[in-house]
Amino acid sequence: MNPNYPKLIFAVLLTIYFLWIAYAPMHGSFLDLVDLPIHETGHLLFRPFGEFMMIAGGSLFQVLFPAVFVGYFIWNEKYYSAAIVLFWVGQSILNVWIYAADAVGMQLVLTSGFTGTEGSFHDWNYLLTETGLIASTKIVAGIIRLTATLTIISAAVFSIYYAFFPTAAETVESDL
After folding, report:
1. Integer Cα distance of 101 and 52 in angstroms
2. Could you list the residue range(s) of the whole structural domain that residue 9 is in?
3. pLDDT score, position 60
4. Is the pTM of this model over 0.85?
5. Which of 59, 130, 158, 168 would disulfide-bridge 83, Cβ 3.0–4.6 Å?
């Protein structure tokens, strides 16, 4: 059991960083600037599927985008890389939690530069109102946050595990 020390150190550092984000998501992350254009692109991509899906598409695409890379690495048996990108998936879900948790208060400053209470459109206020879940915002947001935190914990466990036990595909690559 001889770990790949650079991979192990990187996995541990990411674990500490992303667990800190899971603990205090309102502090933000360096990935927030990456998530925003992906979120906005999701609105455009889901536009052909109607108003509800166009609005949901922002948050949906924001999570699906990094998840596709996780799938790519799994497909290619690069499980350590998949686990590293899974941190991004968890962070992105936390970013969605921040937005969803604000559905009633609408105090977040949105891309328009205004908050939802100042007249800017708030995706999650619309989504939860349309689905009849606006009164359950705390429960919905709690489920989203739990999912995000469990995703980050999974990323931590798998990235550290695969730093110790690389797959055959990862072993061959490191021998080159």
Report:
1. 19
2. 5-27+65-162
3. 98
4. yes
5. 158
